[in-house]
Structures are given as C-alpha cells and as structure tokens.
From TrEMBL, chain A:
It comes from Pseudooceanicola nitratireducens. This is Peptide/nickel transport system ATP-binding protein. SUPFAM superfamilies: P-loop containing nucleoside triphosphate hydrolases (SSF52540). InterPro entries: AAA+_ATPase (IPR003593), ABC_Ni/Peptide_Import (IPR050388), ABC_transporter-like_ATP-bd (IPR003439), ABC_transporter-like_CS (IPR017871), Oligopep_ABC_C (IPR013563), P-loop_NTPase (IPR027417). It is found in: Cell inner membrane. It holds the Pfam family oligo_HPY. Keywords: ATP-binding, Cell membrane, Membrane, Nucleotide-binding, Transport. GO terms for cellular component: plasma membrane. The keyword Nucleotide-binding applies. Transmembrane segments: none annotated. Signal peptide: none annotated. PROSITE patterns: ABC_TRANSPORTER_1, ABC_TRANSPORTER_2. GO terms for biological process: peptide transport; transmembrane transport.
From TrEMBL, chain B:
Belongs to the ABC transporter superfamily. CDD domains: ABC_NikE_OppD_transporters. GO terms for biological process: peptide transport; transmembrane transport. It comes from Pseudooceanicola nitratireducens. It is found in: Cell inner membrane. This is Peptide/nickel transport system ATP-binding protein. Residues 31-275 form the ABC transporter domain. Keywords: ATP-binding, Nucleotide-binding, Transport. Residues 1-19 have a biased composition (Low complexity). Residues 1-28 are annotated as: Disordered.
From TrEMBL, chain C:
Keywords: Cell membrane, Membrane, Peptide transport, Protein transport, Transmembrane, Transmembrane helix, Transport. InterPro entries: BP-dependent_transpt_permease, MetI-like, MetI-like_sf, OppC_N. It comes from Pseudooceanicola nitratireducens. One of its GO terms (biological process) is peptide transport. The lineage of its organism: Bacteria, Pseudomonadati, Pseudomonadota, Alphaproteobacteria, Rhodobacterales. It holds the Pfam family OppC_N. It is found in: Cell membrane. One of its GO terms (cellular component) is plasma membrane. Gene3D superfamilies: MetI-like. This is Peptide/nickel transport system permease protein.
Amino acid sequence: MDPILSVRDLVVEVDTGSAVHKVIDGVSLDLYPGKTLGVVGESGCGKSMTALATMGLLPDRFRVAGGSIQLAGEEMTTVKPSRLRQLRGNAISMIFQEPMTSLNPLLTVERQIAEVVELHQQKSRAEARDIALEMLRAVQIPSPEARLAAYPHELSGGMRQRVMIAIALACRPKVIIADEPTTALDVTVQAQIFRLLRDLQMDTETAIMLITHDLGAVAEMADEVAVFYAGRSIETGPVAQILDTPAHPYTRGLMSCTPRLKLGAQAREPDAGALGEIPGMVPPLGRFPKACRFAPRCALADARCTHDAPPKVALNDAHAALCWHAKEEAFA
Amino acid sequence: MTPAPATTAAPLTGTAADTGSQRDTPHGNLVDVQDLKVHFPLANGNVVRAVDGVTFKVARGASFGIVGESGSGKSTTAQALTRLVDPVSGSMSVGRHSLSGLTGEPLRLARKDIQMVFQDPFSSLNPRLRAGKAVREPLDLMGIGTREEREARVDELFRAVGLHPDAKRLFPHQFSGGQRQRLCIARAMVTEPQLVVCDEPVSALDVAIQAQILNLLKRLRQEKQLTYIFISHDLAVVQNICTHVAVMYLGQFVETGPVEEIFANAKHPYTWSLMAAALSPDDRDRGRERFTVTGEPPSPINPPKGCRFAGRCPFAQDRCRAEKPELRKMGKDHKVACHFAETLTPPLPELALAG
Amino acid sequence: MTQTAMEPTSAMSKPAKAASIPDEAAITPAHPATEFVRAFARNQSAILGLVLLALVFALTFLGPVIYPLNPYEMVDMPFAAPGGEYAPLGTDYIGRDILAGIISGGKATLAVGASSALISVVIGILIGSFAGYFGGFIDAALMKVTEFFQILPALLLAMLLVSIFGAKLLTIIIAIGIVSWPQTARLARAEFMRIRKLDYVNAARTAGAKNSYLIFAVILPAALPPLIVAAGLAVGSAILFEAGLSFLGLGDPNVMSWGLIIGQNRNYLLDAWWTVTLPGIAIFITVLGISLVGDGINDALNPKLRRR
C-alpha cells in the first residue's frame, strides 16, 4: 500500500535574528490509510514543528528549508497558498492540545462545524447543519440537537475536544494530525477520546499522526512509531518492536523513566527503587552536538559517537535506529 | 505562638471523638485534618464546594498522595494546608501548629515548617529574582540565621538538588523547566520544613525530567526525614513516590489506604476507573475491553445528593442515588466510601486475582 | 515580562530550553532590559518623541544661559511682531519678550507637570494596590472613593480648590494631582488583581512574606511597566491642565509659565496671534514628545507588538 502522507528528509529552519538554526534536520515519515503513526519525544524535539510544517502552518521566522512533504502525491512544500487552504480542513486537518483556545468563543458549535463544510464542500446552510448534527452524533456528544446551539464556554473540556474532533472529521479528511489531543484532559476522559478516535478511524480509514510525549498513549493508539530527539527521528518501527525491543539508547531511556502502574499482587512487591534516569537534558536549539545528538547523555557513547554522525541501522525491514550501537543494543 | 520543643502536644482543635492518639510524638502523626471544607462563593450567589468534608492524618515521614481528576479539590486541599485559601470549617494541624485558626504573625512563622512545591516551574519563580536570592528568600523573610549561614545553606541546597552554586547569579529564564523545578524544591527545603506539600510537581515536565525530579524528591525525603503531601492526577507517579494514597472525587475522599493495599485491593468503582484508564507502554493487549466510565464529573456547585459518583458508576443502584456512603473501614487502614464495596467484583483482571 | 524569555513563539509546543549552568545557549534570549532598549530604539516615532523632549529640556535649561533676558521686563512696544529688533518672537500686551517668557516659563510648566503627575501616581498606586491586593470590603470602599472623584468634573474641582486656597503654584500642583489620580488607581488595581493570583506570589506567601513585602517588593515591581507609561502620560495631561487653569485666569501670576502667557494674552489672540500661539506650540511639542515616548515604552514592554 502507498502512504497517504510521505515526508522525506524534511528540514525546517528558524531565523532567530542572530542566527539560523535547523529545528528539524532530515526527518522522514510515512502515514498509511487507516493506520496511526505515533510521533513521540520531549518538548523541543521538533515533533510539533513537523506537524505544523505538514499543515503549512509554520509560525513567523520558521520555514521549510529542504525535503518534501507529499499528501496523496501532491507536494505540500511548494503548493500555492490558495490550494493549501483548499486542502487544509478538507484533505488534512489538525486537532490541537488545548480545545478552549482552538475553538472560536463567539461561534456556536453548529457554526464552527458547518463553516468548514460550507467552505470546502459547497453545501447549503441546511445541509451543513445536518452534517454538523451527524458529526456531533459520531463523536458521541449527548443530546446533540441541543448542543448545536451551545457556545464553547458552555462545554466541558472533554466535550470541547469532541467538538474539535467533529470539526476535524467533518470533511472526511484523509489525514488527521492530533497534537497532544488528550494532554489537557483527565485520564478517564482521555480513555474515552482515544476509543472514539479508534472507532472513527475504523469506519473512515483515516490516517492519524498522533503527536505525544506519552509512551502509554503510543502503546494504546499507534501502529507505527517515530521517536524524535533534537530535531531528528532517531528510531522508527512497528509499535511492538519499538516498545518491546528498543534499539536506540534514548528510546530505552524513555522506557525506563516512565513509571508503570503495578496492580494486584504486583503492587505488594517491594518497591523497585528509583526510576531509570536519562542524565542531563535535551540540548537547546543551536547547541546540538555535531555527530550523535544524544551522545552527551548516552551511557554507551564512545569516540565514534562524538566524531561521526550515526548511521541509520536497519534491524529488520521495518525497524531502524540512528545509532552506532543499535545492533548490540537491540540484541542485548 | 512561641517556639516550643517539637514534642509538645499539638493543640487539638478537632471535635472528633477519637483524637486521643494524635499526639505529636516523634513517630505519631504530623498532619491531622478533620472535616475540612473549602467553599468559594460565586458572584451569582452559588457556592463551589471545592473541598467538602475531608478527614485524614499523615504519619511523620510518610508520603501521602491525593489523586483525582481536575475539579476533584485535590489542589484546593493543598492550598488550604498551606493557607493560601481559607477553609470555611474543619480543623488542620501540622506538628505543633494548629493551622485553622492561625492568622498574622504566628501563621507567617508557622510557614517555616510547611513549605510547598508548585506545579508550573515557569510561573512559580519570580522573574525578577536571581536564583540564589529566590532560594534564600524564605530565610530572609523569616529571619533565619546570619547572612553567612544563609548563603552556606543556599549553597548546600543547590548541591542537594543537583545544581552548581555558581548558578545562583542566573535569572529564572536562563534555566530549563527541570532546573527551575529543582530551584523550587531547593527553595521549599531551605527552611528545613517538616511538611512539604507538592502540588503536581512533575505534571508540567517531560517524562525524562519527571523521572529525575521524582527520584530527587524521593531521595530528599529519606535524607531529610520529610513528610510529603503529594497531589497528582497520575496513579503511576503516586504509586512510585507515595506510602499512602487518598482518591478524591468532587471534594471528598472515596478511598484511602496504604499504597500497597489500594493498588492491590482497590474497592471503589471510581478508583477502578482511574486504574483502567491509566495507559502503560507495556500493554500490548489493545483489543481487550477496558473498564470505562461515561461522562465527566458533575459540577461541584450542586453535587449529587447521594453518592457523588453514582451518575457515572456502572454499578449504581437506587440506594446510591439516595443515600450518601460514608468512608468505612474495609481492613487495616483501608477505607472506602461505597455501599457495595463488599459485594462488587473488580472489573480489572489484576485486581480480581489479588482479591 | 517573562514571556520575553520564552522565545521564539507560542506556536511551538515548548521552545528549546535554555542551556545548563556554565555558559548560555545561543538562543538564550537577552536580558529583558536589553531587549527593551533594542525594541525602543527600533521605534521611529518614539525616537522622534525623545528628540522633541530633548529640545524642550535644552530650551528650558540651556536657554537662560544663551538668552539671559528678564521675562518680566518691558523690552519693546506692546504687541511688537516677531522678527523685531528687540524681541525675536515679539512682545506681549505690556511689551515683555515672548521668547524670554517661553524660556523661563518652561521650568514652571515642567515642574507642574512632573510634580502633579507624581502626586497623582503615588495616590493612584497606593489606593489601587490596596484595593487590588486585599479585595473584598477594602476594594469596594476604595473604589467608591475613586468613583466619587471620577464623576466630579475634574476642571471644576481643580478650579474650586485653587479658588479656595489661592492661585499659588503649590496649590495648583496639589489640585491637579488630586483630581487626576483615579485613572492610575484603576490601572494599578487591575494589575494587582492579575498579578496577585500568579504562582510566584503564592510561593512568596508560603515562604513567609508579609503583606507589605508582597505588595511593594513582589507585586509592585511586576505592575510597574504599565504604571510608568501611565505616569508619563499623566505628566502631559497635567501640563495641559495647568495651561487650562491659567487660561481661565487661575494660574499663579507670580510664576512665569506657558499657560500664564497664554492666559494673560488670550484677549488679544486676534490682534497679536504670536502671544498665544507660540507658547501654545511649546506646550504642544512637549505633550506630543511625552506621548510618543510613552507609546514607545508601552510597545517595547509588550512582547506581542515588539516583533512588528
């Protein structure tokens, strides 16, 4: 199957006024219909910038400096602004972290959903209203007829995120980019939203790019995973392989510092002690190490790691890591 | 209140009958909260019952976790304990300080023993204060030690939290989020408090930094024999750092007990729902039917009359909606507020096996 | 102003964080003060305002050295036109030199502006900070007082005060100060209400801070930037106010000021335009300069406007 969204060697630069830095440096990703790609990493690793570049929504002073982004064969990095507006919200749409600030506080729920439909699909107001109602049903908002007239501030956080999802899905997009869609929500509501996204994806064959810092969310939602570190995708592969047999020391570090809930008999076992730690912190923009960017924090780093850029090591057809030690790690 | 030896009996303001054992002995309870209520009046005459009758004790050296969703009142409980908000009724004592009636200068001096770490390390440091001054400020404000002693203490705490004392001259915006939280922890420890209230101290941090801060908090508690009250929405974090846990829903505790007991043998459907919703990177069994509850917590302005969880609880019966369940003893130190705690079977396979 | 530290834009999930201890990262933003000076220097109209103010100050403080003429002395015929032999900017209704009057009147005008603005800002900050910090009953009471002063017509109240206590410079300064503080008080109150809820204020409270420390050492420094701007603008409006009082004949007749020149010559506006227009231009340039600089400070302190 061909990917619906294909990012190749993407480079995004920021001009800080005094210098130009590469925020994203050669990232490649593939999104397949009906599948979910989990993009995981810490703040400042470039995962949100990848999403914004794909949507053509890079903020001021940021620009795509290289590589390609193809949505269903159409090159997004050179597309005309008018065509980009046609695609956004229609073929590709985005769900943001904070549903309160991403919704227009002055419009009713009906208008927010119907506006997108009227804009992209030339529907009449009545037809758009029907679609809005249908979407509210699809995202399982109770008493949807009554909610059509509600304003965002009258809804709870979970309801707002459902409305965001309804807007994102209204035009049946091929790709949805969900940037930390549940981070602002409670865990019980997060579980509801994830289940909803999965059910909707099964019906519509939508491809989802799920951007998250939470490996638990990756395990729950993703089919494929890309782990980002300091502007690079340092490990990619199927979810089970990434989480069960991580090959990059950074991925291993992330796994070891995530606290696990231990229930039942396990909970009575003596405390395993301290969590695993990755020493130090993500290097700031403009201070990325020259060779392997993780080397200063890596227990395995040797002379090679600090002098030569790490190769992309394929562990099998699907699983690859950007690390000199990937093979030994994977089979350790 | 004049300084007195730590072993002096705490002034008891509680009305509860069973307060006889709560003397402030070295191995007794440091924190004693009885029927705490914090209500916020709204402009339209309604009242938000943020904390609505909470009772608990925390032993010296324990780490007491309060876990719940947004709007459960867990952060308000923390703010009441540090007297950032004023309770409408109930009593709180920490060590020899009876906090509930305390005002003015005695309250200010009592703060030496009760310090707080806030959630957002970006907003909880004054942007105009250099790091060294920020950590030293509590000593300055409470007039503790000479100038040299204060500086030496600040240096010692910088090292204890893993920062170089040279960083004292920097401003907060020159630190990363994790480093800022280390500063906040140093600042909270500088007066040698007995109780540190941590209000979601790792929620704003990335997972790698979160692990560093959790390990730091754990180590400091052991080294300094501190008592924590630890507010979090994350069960795994609470299990990692706490010795006791209370699950809070709509201003009230629904289940409390030692961490091993609660996580092995939870009895309340709300606790189950939190456990079932927690995501683990080790979980490969995605297709399985999870136990989920519907809806979201009702408004704390008009909480339901009976059990506050009844509206979302799949096991709810008529009695739940009519009659409010009290916290009942279910075993040693394990308390549950559910009418059917004895008869319900946990819908989580791990718990069912352990039960 | 912490936002300035959070380069480069809010659209990034969390921007690259500052470096570790020993040496700072390339992207570590400049200190807020440096950033402020840079932003101010980029603003052309603010620089123009600064130049205008510099001219006014040069005229007032260097003028007497270069042009040491007694402004109270008759030097020519009354209403001598500008460009005359004895008075380059003409004379007034009793033959006094207008240029000497403007040079000598600058001091009093600027003094009235600065002193009454200071009085109004101090009263405004005290009342506004207490109202905003304590809230509740104290807030309600103080705001009632503020509203009382706001609904009285300011000019009438000032005229009343000056009429009762006499047209002396000090009385005029105090009168202007007393009628113009409510705006500052409202601004200070709003800032205090916003800032007192911030985490670091709570953190200072748990660290054992007294109310006085929280108000003056923690919240006030954070609230100052907009108040400084307001104080600058208050200087401009106090100068206008003094001119207005003088125009109505309530200026101090013993102290030369721009308003006084205008007030004494106002009947002859049609016959001798320069007697009124020239000091009027001096007032205009001063107030314009103050207001341009004030706007410049405001924009430079606002990180959202800074990038334009």
